[in-house]
């Protein structure tokens, strides 16, 4: 990824358990596409486009890498033993920052953890590393942002539980927040068709909105760090 396009200098983030590497297509794209094809259920609640091959993925990646508001990391499990799923047995998923606005000092976090690494230390540490980087002040090596958002399909109970466990505050439900691909968990598009007169409009979703903000970070930070230390 060209780090010059992101609002901030993207860098490797890590602790003893997990590393967030800058996503490198030549290393990470092929195993990521394999995982997408093997586990399409990972995207039941995520508005992810259809990916049939690396070419499809690279079209998506080019949009991410060219946006100053977005950046993508590969999640590497430093505890995983050889022979497990992924690059060198350790490629455990991806995390991203989405819609980062430097003027307002806000961003949104996105997380996809592969099935073999779910319900382990991986997600907590990947999320924690992103929170430390985004919310810690520059004097402590962070970006000093004011707000990190977490958005989940309103019916995605697992994602909502994760957000609350990490320390995100529930803000409410954004109703009919976005369109959602056919064949996934979505609200009917019929009312939308009636409204705008089209026949090809996609179904939609309600979105549960969570956040952690800067004036509560000093209180929440020790809790996040403590969670990251558990296995």
TrEMBL record:
Organism of this sequence: Cladophialophora psammophila CBS 110553
Q: What is this protein called?
A: N-acetyltransferase domain-containing protein
Q: Which Pfam families match?
A: Acetyltransf_3
Describe the location of the N-acetyltransferase domain by residue ranges: 25-169
Name any one GO molecular function.
Answer: protein N-terminal-serine acetyltransferase activity
């Amino acid at each position: 990824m060209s780090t010059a396009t992101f609002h901030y200098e993207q860098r490797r983030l890590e602790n003893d358990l997990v590393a967030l590497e800058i996503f490198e297509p030549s290393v990470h794209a092929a195993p990521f596409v394999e995982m997408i094809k093997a586990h399409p259920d990972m995207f039941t609640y995520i508005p992810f486009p259809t990916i049939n091959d690396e070419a499809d993925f690279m079209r998506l990646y080019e949009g991410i890498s060219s946006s100053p508001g977005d950046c993508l990391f590969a999640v590497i499990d430093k505890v995983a033993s050889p022979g497990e799923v992924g690059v060198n047995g350790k490629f455990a998923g991806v995390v991203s920052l989405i819609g980062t606005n430097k003027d307002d000092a806000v961003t949104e976090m996105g997380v996809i953890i592969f099935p073999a690494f779910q319900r382990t230390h991986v997600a907590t540490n990947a999320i924690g590393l992103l929170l430390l980087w985004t919310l810690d002040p520059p004097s402590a090596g962070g970006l000093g942002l004011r707000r990190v958002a977490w958005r989940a399909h309103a019916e995605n109970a697992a994602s909502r539980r994760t957000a609350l466990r990490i320390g995100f505050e529930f803000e409410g439900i954004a109703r009919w927040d976005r369109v959602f691909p056919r064949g996934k968990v979505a609200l009917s598009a019929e009312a939308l068709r009636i409204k705008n007169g089209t026949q090809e409009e996609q179904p939609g979703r309600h979105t549960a909105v969570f956040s952690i903000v800067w004036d509560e970070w000093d209180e929440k930070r020790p809790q996040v760090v403590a969670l990251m230390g558990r296995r």
